[in-house]
Design brief:
By secondary structure, this protein is an alpha+beta fold. It is 49% helix and 19% strand. The chain is built from six helices and four strands. A four-stranded antiparallel sheet has the order 1-2-3-4. The relative contact order is 0.18.
Length: 156
């Protein structure tokens, strides 16, 4: 019986640590500028869908409150590009820039040293806050998709 309980504790601890290893791998991929590794850890289509859902007030989204600058960015994109603005603007480069936005040179480096919050927001979700609350932080949500943790929403 003790062996079973010990095994369950180890299994539970491994599950709790699992998404944090994905966060670390994403940070290291950004540091190395390894776009292949980054692509595997980011679900662009889901990020686009969550932003579209947030814009539709009648549909629930996993994106929380957004900043005025985020809303202005979306409005400007829609004015310039029309209905396809989100599909055009929200791409891997945009996601990488958001994750690096608190770095002095947001074209390189990771985000780990600027991570101010990383905790579960459900059994299959981890919420990240990059930057301090009073400094327009970037929020990213990792979701367990089948057997891999991936970023499925990002906003500021």
């Amino acid at each position: 019986m003790k062996t079973l309980i010990f095994g369950l504790i180890i299994l539970f601890s491994a599950f709790l640590a699992w998404p944090y290893t994905a966060v670390y791998r994403l940070d290291q991929a950004l540091v190395r500028n390894d776009t292949q590794a980054i692509e595997q850890l980011i679900d662009i289509e889901s990020i686009q869908q969550q932003i579209k859902r947030k814009m539709n007030k009648n549909v629930e989204s996993s994106i929380g409150d957004v900043s005025n600058s985020f809303v202005e960015w979306l409005q400007n994109g829609i004015q310039r590009l029309g209905n396809d603005a989100i599909d055009s603007l929200v791409n891997l480069d945009w996601v990488m820039a958001q994750l690096r936005s608190k770095n002095p040179d947001n074209r390189r480096g990771g985000f780990f040293e600027h991570l101010s919050y990383a905790f579960f927001d459900g059994h299959d979700g981890l919420l990240l806050r990059i930057g301090e609350l009073d400094d327009d932080p970037v929020h990213a949500r990792l979701t367990l998709q089948e057997t891999q943790w991936r970023i499925t929403a990002i906003y500021n």
